[in-house]
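Pasting as-is:
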Amino acid sequence: MKNTKLKIALAGSAFVALAATGTALAATGSSTGSGSNSSSAAERSPSKPGRQVKQQTSGVIKADGANVFPHSLGFDAASKTFFAGSLKHGKVYATGPDGKVRTVVDDPQLVSAQAVLADSKRGRVLVSNVDYGLADHSHQDAPFRVAGVGSYDMKSGKQNWCVDLTAVLLDGKKHLISDVTVAPDGTAYAVDELTPTVFRIDRTGHASVLLRSPLLQGTLDIPNLLNDVGMSAVEWVKGNQLVIAMADGSMVRVPVRHPGQAEPVKLSAPLASPAAGMQLLKDGSIAAVSSGLLSGKPAQIQHIQPRDGWKEATVKVTDSVNDPATSDVTAGPAGTVYALSGGLADLLAGKPNTGFTLTPVKTG
């Protein structure tokens, strides 16, 4: 029974399980680092001079949080602090460029802390609550029955509110809140990877359904593991819109005031599948990472440049990270962008690890 549970698909924005034989990881190992000098990077289309995003060169950050197994990362520029959620312990940790890790949020309501967003403007951290059946406090016989978002004080870790999104739907289905974003007015939006549902959550924690649409229905199947994996990441963008990455590499644009007018974004090329995390850049474009766990190849960093108010966008591969299980990208100090490798392959295999890695990546 234990081995079966370890093969659950930790899908989409976080990662996807390997084939039963585990040959992909065996072939690549779990080493982490920029793939810019690897043979896979040589196959990428080179960036055009003059369009390169200026970023300070910064070293890899090795965080010392043993067995944290983070899926995503948020960054607070004022304190130069990264916030990482734990899929294993259901806590939120903070680390800086020195890699030292401390616990910030320890809330018994959190089973697994998946999406983490540092909302610096309001001094809070938003966290999505999920259950893959692999955490310390998992409902091991009924995974994917926990779905929520919590708000916590960035300094003290005290809970502001924690909303149960399954109580909003009451549909008895499996749920996975893969990502959360926030609008300038403080309204949060969360996406469900296993149902085509986008939630709106106001600043007090009151939740409602913004949109349910066939456009958001998952189509990515992981053989013998999990079917219909859908929304993997979301960003609020200019024009009061949500841009949603689907695990299959497509994207959807949702006007917040008129969600019924949601439509696919016309991409120059699909994102590599499965798409995982995204980060909104200062110029309004987006950096995205796609996991390589299905293929065993390095994770791909992609730059998404919008046109015509996000009705269309150009997709360009700009970098890679050797660890296939790389699952998120986030802003960092001095204009850097970091990719997160959380040791998720070890979590799947039931192995301990010594920490997680943040790798600076090119986004243009």
